[in-house]
Every structure is written in C-alpha cells, then in structure tokens.
Write a structure and sequence with these properties.
Elements (H helix, E strand, L loop, with lengths): L8 H30 L8 H4 L2 E7 L2 E7 L5 H6 L8 H20 L1
Antiparallel strand pairs: 1-2
Length: 108
C-alpha cells in the first residue's frame, strides 16, 4: 500500500481493517461451504447440515472467524460415536494454516 501526502494513518487503518474483514468473511463462508459439503452423516431432515454457519466479527481489535452448527443435537454429531461425524473442528484444522497465510498477504 502506498502512502501519499494526503493519506493519514487513520484512513490506512480503516482500509486495512476493511480488507481484513472482507478476507475473514470470505474465509468463514469458504469453511461453511466445505463443512456442509463434506459432513459425513446421512441427512434425514437436512436441518443439521443447513444449520452450519461460518461467520466473521470483530471483538475489539481482533478479527474472529467462527464455524458453528446450530441445532441442539449438533454437539452429539461432533463428539459422539468416536467423533466419526465431526466436521467443524476438522474443517477449522484443515483451513487454519491457509487462512493465516492469506491474512499475512492481506496485511503486507
């Protein structure tokens, strides 16, 4: 990013924050799509698969990406049966390095 005489640090900070936000939101949606597509269970109602959400938000000055399953029995899909049906944690582990590398490119 080039600095010009009329560009102040506050506007640069806003631009960087916006770029991080777009990147984090895109990454959250990418993980959501992957988790929905690759969940190992057989759908009966599609409620659990459809409840998977990837989101991004700010907590103070920290960008936070979340991936969640939003039906009351999702915890059993993640933790029961030897974790054979888990999709959230494996998805986070699969994408975390890629997301961090991309973040580094955004802030350079």
């Amino acid at each position: 990013m080039k600095f010009t005489n009329n560009m102040n640090f506050h506007s640069v900070e806003k631009q960087i924050r916006a770029a991080i936000g777009v990147y984090a939101d895109t990454s959250a949606k990418k993980m959501e799509g992957y988790a929905k597509k690759n969940a190992k269970w057989t759908d009966r109602t599609s409620n659990s698969r459809n409840s998977i959400q990837g989101n991004f938000g700010w907590k103070g000055d920290k960008a936070v990406i979340t991936l969640s399953g939003n039906v009351d029995y999702f915890v059993f899909l993640e933790l029961a049966h030897g974790k054979n049906y888990a999709i959230l944690i494996p998805t986070i582990h699969q994408f975390s390095e890629e997301i961090l590398r991309g973040y580094q490119r955004v802030v350079r």
